[in-house]
Amino acid sequence: MKQLIPALFAVGALMALVGAAVFITGWVYAPYIYTIGAGFVALAQINTPVRGKSKTLKRLRIQQIFGAIALVLTGAFMFFTHGNDWIACLTIAAILELYTAFRIPQEEAKLQQ
User: Fold this and answer.
1) Of the four, 3, 32, 68, 84, which is 20 to 30 A from 9 by CA?
2) pTM of the predicted protein model
């Protein structure tokens, strides 16, 4: 399981990136590729164990899971809206993911000291 989660995350991130980039060209299968990739990323993040019990770490973990759900929701926007509404949801998800990607390791390092 320790090797499966990082592999699932890497494959999912690559699929999400390709799906979002190719969606602009109008390729029919781009939303499918993106949504499957976002689902892989969400599964990997939800199944990642938490190393610590502080309130700050729990809050950051909830934000990370919310960001992963927003990534999957972006795929739904790709399917059901015909404009660029999905870009706003993707931006929110990316900001949450980026923030938690830096803050969670920082908080874990603070707890170890």
Assistant:
1) 84
2) 0.91
